[in-house]
Write a structure and sequence with these properties.
The structure holds two protein chains of two kinds.
Chain A lengths: L4 H12 L3 H20 L4 E3 L3 E8 L2 E4 L6 E4 L2 E8 L1 H8 L7
Antiparallel strand pairs in A: 1-2, 2-5, 3-4
Chain B lengths: L2 H11 L5 H20 L4 E3 L3 E8 L2 E4 L6 E4 L2 E8 L1 H19 L1
Helix pairs in contact in B: 1-2
Classes of the chains: A alpha+beta, B alpha+beta.
Chain lengths: 99, 103
Amino acid sequence: MALTKADMAEKLFDELGLNKREAKELVELFFEEIRVALENGRQVKLSGFGNFDLREKNERPGRNPKTGEEIPISARRVVTFRSGQKLKAKVEAYAGSEP
Amino acid sequence: MTKSELVEILATKNSHLNHKDVELAVKSLLDQMSHALASGQRIEIRGFGSFSLHYRPPRIGRNPKTGESVALAAKYVPHFKPGKELRERVNNSFQRERERETA
């Protein structure tokens, strides 16, 4: 089962004693403010977790995989995530079966 | 935007919460996310994106200083796939910037 916003809000309720509505709103706003920063062209650096960076891609040739028709993929800006050292180290140690 | 700037914004917009609680909440959210990934669990945030683990097979690496070969074990690395809303909002604002530049 994946971690969701509802799980995160529940934990804020349990751990910090925020009421359920406050917890839910705070989780919502946390992700929204990251989106707003990225939308405004700002990189987001969350130390210990990782950075959300922006990259600009030039137009490149593409293809409709269904019809095989050639259509150019327009120039665009995309979000990439680079995990921080701390998160990398934690995840590397995961020895479970392939997710 | 850094973590402390994010805390400031959230605190300003949640004036009924005290600053310390907002700081603890942000720390908790990032800890929860790190912990989920560290235990092999995915994170799915509709409209934002999903985090999962990607497998990296074992390989022979090289010490760049000595040139010596070292066996590197298989590992997992975190991967983020932006969601539709995030992709669209980031790209739409980019297209508007480009239009302004050429106008």
